[in-house]
Specification:
By secondary structure, the protein is α+β, with helices and mostly antiparallel strands. It has helices spanning about 5-15, 20-40, 45-60, 65-75, 105-120, 150-160, 180-190, 210-225, and strands at about 85-90, 95-105, 125, 135-145, 165, 170-175, 195-205, 205-210, 230-235, 235-240. The chain folds into 3 domains: about 5-75, Arc Repressor Mutant, subunit A, CATH 1.10.10; about 85-130 and about 205-240, 2-Layer Sandwich (Alpha-Beta Plaits), CATH 3.30.70.980; about 135-205, 2-Layer Sandwich (Alpha-Beta Plaits), CATH 3.30.70. The protein has a 4-stranded antiparallel beta sheet with strand order 3-1-2-9. Strand 1 (about 85-90) and strand 2 (about 95-105) form a beta hairpin.
Length: about 240
């Protein structure tokens, strides 16, 4: 339904390159540091930090890097005071886009996003213009060559998942926020290891794009995620199979 799987698959494949891995590490460290600064360095008492560490481990970040990032944030020395800002935008074909950022300078971030969007026929939107089209959910992405839909369904439904969808070689499982940690624990207990785990903004409805428009949209999403201030990008579009 969401069209999210296709973009998740593309991002997962890109993350395997050394250059992308380095950029991903930088963004995860920023998230860990911010989470620890805002909520303390104890993962048991800080859900945001707990999720950031999960992301770090999924990306194969060395444990020492994770520890240093937590210690830096928990030290709260006032450096690197980033703030969460969710920007809303329109892409080509009227696609709704949410851009999650961690920035220490909005005066840098806003013009950068405007420039990127403008090159692809998009634009920034007012607050509330598109966010109502998305729901925040837990998202688990599995390798479909390793697990079957039936295997995952048996665990997912009983632990509170609300949707399971196979796209190409991946299976995406989504759940409400209240079921995120119980579902992760259920998968862990069953020995099922996802390719990635995240809290994402999943669209309620989608715009289906042609192959040409889909390629243009993917190029826009990639450019947005390459920006240093951007943590994640979400769009309400479905990409047709090539």
């Amino acid at each position: 339904m969401s069209g999210h799987s296709k973009w998740s698959t593309i991002k997962h494949k890109k993350a395997k390159t050394d250059a992308q891995r380095g950029k991903i590490f930088t963004k995860i460290v920023r998230e860990i540091t911010t989470a620890a600064r805002l909520g303390g360095g104890d993962q048991e008492m800080n859900p945001r930090l707990r999720l950031a560490v999960i992301k770090a481990k999924d990306a194969n970040m060395p444990q020492d890097n994770i520890k240093r990032a937590i210690e830096k944030g928990a030290g709260n020395n006032g450096d690197d005071a980033y703030e969460d800002v969710m920007f809303e935008a329109y892409g080509p074909n009227g696609v709704a886009i949410l851009i999650a950022t961690l920035t220490d300078n909005r005066n840098r971030t806003v013009p950068n996003l405007r420039t990127i969007l403008g090159k692809f026929g998009g634009s920034l939107a007012n607050k509330g213009a598109v966010s109502y089209l998305f729901d925040q959910k837990g998202v688990f992405l599995f390798d479909a060559t390793q697990y079957s839909e039936d295997q995952l369904m048996e665990v997912a439904i009983s632990a509170g998942a609300d949707e399971l969808e196979q796209k190409e070689s991946e299976i995406e499982v989504t759940c409400p926020l209240t079921s995120f940690e119980p579902l992760k624990l259920a998968f862990d207990s069953a020995g099922y290891h996802p390719l990635s785990v995240s809290l994402g903004m999943v669209p309620q409805t989608v715009v289906t794009l042609s192959q040409a428009d889909g390629e243009r949209m993917v190029a826009l999403l990639e450019k947005l995620e390459e920006d240093d201030d951007v943590q994640e990008v979400f769009a309400n579009c479905r990409f047709t199979d090539e």
